[in-house]
C-alpha cells in the first residue's frame, strides 16, 4: 500500500515538473544521454560508424534530412521497435534502450530533432562484407530482434523512492552495462561490470565518475571515459545523485 501511494505521489510530482508543451532543450539532453549525438553527430547529419570491408561499411543516417519527412508517430515507432515505417529492420541501433524512454522524454527528443536544420547528404545503406553472415550465426541480431529478445530483462526495482533513479540508469547506462545492469556475462578486464560496482563510490566520487568518465583514483575506464562525459553532460547533479542512490539500493537486492 505504501508503495502504491508513493508511486502515485511520484507520478504527480513528475507531472508538475515536466513541461506541458514539448521542451526541445530537454530533448537535446535526452539526445546526449541516449548517444544519438555521439553516433549521428551534433548536426544529426550522420557519419561512417563502421569501416571494415570484411564485416560491414555502415553509416549512421542523416537524421537532419530524414526526420522532416516522417511524422512524430513514425519516428517514435521506429525508435521503439527498431523498424522503419517500410518494415525494414535497423542495424547497430540500441533500440532496446530507446524503447524504454518515457512518453515525455520521447516527445521532447523528437521536438529537439525537429529544430535541427537539414544539412549534408543522405548516406549509402549498410553494405555487408563476408564476415557479416558469420557474426549473424553467432550472437549478432538486428535492432528489432535484439530489442524484442531483451525486453523482459529490466533492472531490479527498489521501490517508489528509487523509481526515477532506476529509470535514469536504464536510459543512460544500459547500452553498455546491459538491460538489467548486470554487465557483461563474465566480464573480462575492461568490460562493463555489474553496476553494483557503484556502491564502492561515495556521492562526490560518483559525480566525478560521471562528469569525467574516470574511476576511483583517476582510473581510465575505456569506453566509459571516452563517451561518458559527452553523454552524461545531459544529466543534472540531482539526476546523478538519484542514479547513485538507486544503484546503492539495488546493490543490496539479492540477484535472482
Ligand atoms: C551506437 C550508435 C547509434 C546510436 C547510439 C543511435 N543511433 Fe540511430 N542509427 C545508427 C546507425 C548505424 C543507423 C543506420 C542503421 C542501418 O543502416 O540499418 C541508425 C539509424 C537511425 C534511424 C533510421 C534512419 C533511416 O535511415 O531510416 C533513426 C530514425 C535513428 N537512427 C535515430 C536515432 C536516435 C533518435 C537516437 C537516439 C535516441 C539514435 N538514433 C541513436 C547508429 C546509432
Ligand atoms: C559507452 C559505454 C558505457 C556507458 C554508456 C556507461 N558505462 Fe560504465 N563502464 C563502461 C566500461 C567499458 C567499464 C569498465 C571499464 C574498466 O573496468 O576498465 C565501465 C565501468 C563502470 C563502473 C566501474 C568503475 C570501477 O571503479 O571499476 C561504474 C560504477 C560505472 N561504469 C557506472 C556507469 C553508470 C552509472 C553509467 C550510466 C550513467 C555508465 N557507467 C554508463 C562503459 C560504459
From TrEMBL:
Signal peptide residues on this chain, from the entry's feature table: none
Pfam families reported in the protein's UniProt record: Cytochrom_C, Cytochrome_CBB3
Superkingdom as given in the UniProt entry: Bacteria
Sample GO molecular function, one term: electron transfer activity
Stretches assigned to the Cytochrome c domain: 22-117, 160-251
Keywords noted in UniProt: Electron transport, Heme, Iron, Metal-binding, Transport
PROSITE patterns in the record: CYTC, PROKAR_LIPOPROTEIN
Organism: Sphingomonas aliaeris
Name of this chain's protein: C-type cytochrome
Entries under InterPro entries matching the protein: Cyt_c-like_dom (IPR009056), Cyt_c-like_dom_sf (IPR036909), Cytochrome_c550/c551-like (IPR051811)
PANTHER family (alphabetical): CYTOCHROME C-553-LIKE (PTHR37823)
Amino acid at each position: 500500500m505504501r508503495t502504491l501511494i508513493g508511486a502515485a505521489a511520484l507520478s504527480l510530482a513528475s507531472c508538475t515538473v515536466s513541461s506541458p508543451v514539448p521542451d526541445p532543450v530537454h530533448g537535446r539532453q535526452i539526445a546526449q544521454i541516449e548517444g544519438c549525438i555521439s553516433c549521428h553527430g551534433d548536426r544529426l547529419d550522420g557519419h561512417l560508424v563502421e569501416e571494415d570491408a570484411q564485416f560491414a561499411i555502415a553509416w549512421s543516417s542523416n537524421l537532419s534530412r530524414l526526420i522532416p519527412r516522417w511524422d512524430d508517430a513514425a519516428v517514435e515507432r521506429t525508435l521503439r521497435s527498431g523498424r522503419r515505417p517500410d518494415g525494414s529492420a535497423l542495424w547497430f541501433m540500441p533500440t532496446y534502450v530507446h524503447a524504454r524512454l518515457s512518453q515525455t522524454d520521447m516527445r521532447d527528443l523528437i521536438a529537439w530533432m525537429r529544430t535541427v536544420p537539414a544539412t549534408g547528404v543522405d548516406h549509402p545503406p549498410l553494405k555487408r562484407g563476408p564476415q557479416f553472415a558469420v557474426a549473424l550465426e553467432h550472437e549478432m541480431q538486428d535492432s528489432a530482434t535484439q530489442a524484442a529478445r531483451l525486453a523482459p530483462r529490466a533492472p531490479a526495482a527498489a521501490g517508489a523512492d528509487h523509481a526515477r533513479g532506476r529509470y535514469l540508469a536504464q536510459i543512460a547506462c544500459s547500452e553498455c552495462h546491459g538491460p538489467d545492469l548486470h554487465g557483461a556475462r563474465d566480464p573480462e578486464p575492461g568490460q562493463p561490470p555489474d553496476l553494483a560496482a557503484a556502491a564502492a563510490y561515495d556521492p562526490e566520487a560518483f559525480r566525478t565518475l560521471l562528469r569525467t568518465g574516470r574511476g576511483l583514483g583517476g582510473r581510465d575506464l575505456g569506453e566509459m571515459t571516452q563517451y561518458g562525459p559527452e553523454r552524461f553532460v545531459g544529466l543534472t547533479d540531482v539526476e546523478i545523485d538519484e542514479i547513485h542512490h538507486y544503484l546503492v539500493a539495488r546493490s543490496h537486492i539479492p540477484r535472482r
